[in-house]
Design brief:
With 237 residues, the protein is an alpha/beta fold. It is built from eight helices and nine strands. The strands form two sheets. It has a seven-stranded mixed beta sheet, sandwiched between helices. It has a two-stranded antiparallel sheet with strand order 4-5. A hairpin with an 8-residue loop joins strand 4 (67-69) and strand 5.
Length: 237
């Protein structure tokens, strides 16, 4: 069953080498992510599953030891999802899972085996819930690291330009995460999320499915919209 979850944003800019001169702007977000991973470690899980959205051809499971890279962002930096396994996986991590791998390496995660799952941002809520329930049953004590950004339409300079619906959308997600309100996450509208370029919708709804009947409590550690994109860090434990 699910014993803990951390929700983190997944912009490549979270990695200081990618952000370069702008790196200090996300120091508070990085610190919150570190604290969130500490909550996962304290839960003593038997398995950590990292969930994030992925592009076409990147969907599906990623075993421990899968490598990722930020070379596509002009940085000579590679990461790996936990210790190397007996075989070398053929596929590289999608960006969301590569950011997660960087966070786990940064904090020295060694508390449980790791698996990754890349999902399409079009995954329907019912499928998300079913996926979450399946992940929660993978081990006696399962932890989830849920990677996803909020809306990308908070300001005129945001990737999706300004949309007046973006701030209320992000505020409802923040409230649901703070309250560990799985029903509210399940109720998020996939169409609206897509219009607002909120890539975290499917991973959040997977968390909602995994958390059914667990009685976990939530804590919101960070909420801001640098660059016009909603970034949230939360824990359920």
């Amino acid at each position: 069953m699910l014993v803990a979850s951390a929700v983190c944003p997944c912009p490549p800019l979270l990695v200081p080498e990618v952000a370069a001169g702008a790196a200090p702007e996300l120091d508070a977000a990085r610190a919150a992510c570190t604290d969130a991973l500490g909550v996962l470690a304290a839960a003593r899980p038997d398995l950590l599953v990292v969930v994030g959205t992925a592009g076409q051809g990147e969907h599906g499971p990623y075993p421990q030891g899968t490598r990722g890279t930020f070379r596509g962002f002009g940085v000579d930096l590679d990461v790996r999802l936990g210790p190397a396994g007996p075989s070398v996986p053929e596929r590289e991590l999608p960006t969301s899972l590569a950011v997660a791998a960087w966070l786990l390496e940064r904090t020295g995660w060694a508390d449980a085996p790791i698996e990754g799952l890349g999902v399409p941002d079009t995954l329907e809520p019912e499928q998300c819930a079913a996926t979450g329930r399946e992940l929660a049953g993978r081990a006696g004590r399962v932890a989830l690291l849920v990677m996803g950004d909020g809306s990308a339409c908070r300001t005129l300079k945001a990737p999706g330009y300004l949309d007046e619906r973006a701030a209320p959308f992000d505020a409802e997600v923040a409230r649901a995460l703070a309250a560990a309100d799985a029903a509210a996450l399940r109720a998020l509208d996939p169409g609206l999320a897509r219009e607002l370029k909120a890539a975290g919708r499917a991973p959040w709804q997977i968390l909602a499915g995994a958390a059914e009947h667990t009685g976990l409590t939530g804590s919101l550690l960070y909420e801001d919209a640098p660059y016009g994109v909603g970034y949230l860090v939360a824990t359920w434990s």
